[in-house]
Amino acid sequence: xxxxxxxxxxxxxxxxxxxxxxxxxxxxxxxxxxxxxxxxxxxxxxxxxxxxxxxxxxxxxxxxxxxxxxxxxxxxxxxxxx
Length: 82
Prior knowledge:
The structure is a single chain. By secondary structure, this protein is mainly beta. The chain has a domain at about 1-55. Helices cover about 10% and strands about 35% of the residues. It is built from one helix and five strands; from the N terminus they run βββββα. It has one helix spanning about 50-55; strands spanning about 1-5, 10-15, 20-30, 35-40, 45. It has a three-stranded antiparallel beta sheet, with no helix packed on it. The protein has a two-stranded antiparallel sheet with strand order 1-5. The two termini are about 20 Å apart.
């Protein structure tokens, strides 16, 4: 997966720590557990042509979280590029 630039990006995480840098959009959502006004960060990821073919063939999406504690996450599909 390639890091994408999420629409409405508000900051970039990790660049000062030696990573490529992850553009995020800070937002507030309504969560079934956290309730209304739950702070969240959204990122965008773009599959390569090979990954896209694998996804179409039924391959799963793996999410790797660094560290030993797993924060709550949501995974969804964004809108196609215009």
